[in-house]
Amino acid sequence: MPYVARITLRPVKGLDGVAVESARVGAGGALENDRRWRLVDADRRELVPHVVPLLAGVRSTVDLAGRSITLWIGGDGTGAGPPARVDSFPLRPGPDGPCPWLSRTLGIGVHLEERPDGGYPDDPDAPGPTVASTASLEEVARWFSLPPDLVRRRLGPGLEIDDCAAFWEDTLACPASRPSVRGDGGDDPWGTSAPPPEPRSFVVGGTAFSAVGVRPLLDVDALDPATGRPIEHFREIFEAWRRRSARVDVDASQWGGRFRLAATTVGDGRGGEVRVGDRIVPVAHLV
User: Fold this and answer.
1) How far is 102 from 187, CA to CA, in rounded Å?
2) How many CB atoms lie within 10 A of CB 152?
3) Nearest to residue 114, comparing CAs of 50, 33, 51?
4) Residue 186 zone, left/alpha/beta (φ > 0; ψ -120 to 50; rest)
């Protein structure tokens, strides 16, 4: 049965994630401390790698207990290789925090904002963790001859699920209809006129979520996680392999392209907690 193999929080939106053994879940589904902080410019424009490409070369680790952040750039200036210098700061606004270092590195005034309750989700309509299988990450890594850990760093979900096939998470967000079955003289409830099935709800441990969709990737996701440089024809190759890997139990007709990875989610309004090792069980789906 599928289970949670890894939980990754990204405390500062746009920077590296940190693996944790457990996380509290808010009413909307957001994991506590995930995207709790964000970087903005003087006009409060959010600074993330697809807006400021230089940010893709910044490496980071966050000590959540100590509320501190460590930042560095690799010796080659891309984030790869031995760091030229490592600096640590309290995770707070002002001159003692990381903003002066980031301002110098990015060449733009950087400010730090915090929202303890719910953070700054990429999709306000799907504030829960993204979900993808370990097999999905390994499959994408195979397509581009990359180490799975590098793919995980760039594309890794909030909840990584093991003991399931590649792209199993698509069946949560976009389940396909049952084969046509006609009853005793009645209308076919699964015929072409029927609406597509709703995304599935599922329980992780004792915490309930609903899938919303499959996350569209961005151009910045085509950067090599080790060097920060573009991978040639990344999007075309990715989409071609996604089509070849299509599952018969997934309806991708509304995707508008295959440049997508990981199910997006929302909570059930009650919150809870998720832990590494928790089983993940769909609870409202077609059998």
Assistant:
1) 62
2) 23
3) 33
4) beta
pLDDT tens per residue, range 143-171:
999 999 989 988 999 999 999 999 999 99
| Residue 186 structure tokens | 């009645």
What dihedral do alpha carbons 202, 167, 279, 175 form, nearest 10°? 30
Q: How far is CA 244 from CA 55, 234, 241, 256, in A?
A: 33, 15, 5, 16
d(CA 154, CA 151): 5
Reported pTM: 0.89
DSSP assignments along 214-235, one per residue: EEEP-GGGGB-TTT-PBPTTHH
- State the Cα–Cα distance between residues 223 and 119, nearest whole angstrom: 26
In angstroms, the CA 37 to CA 13 distance is: 6
Alpha carbon distances (Å) from 246 to 1, 23, 167, 236, 249: 21, 32, 8, 15, 9
What count of other Cβ atoms lies within 10 Å of the Cβ of residue 7? 24
Distances (CA, A) of 258 to 28, 117, 235, 237: 27, 33, 9, 10
The answer to whether residues 158 and 7 touch, using CB atoms and an 8 Å cutoff, is yes
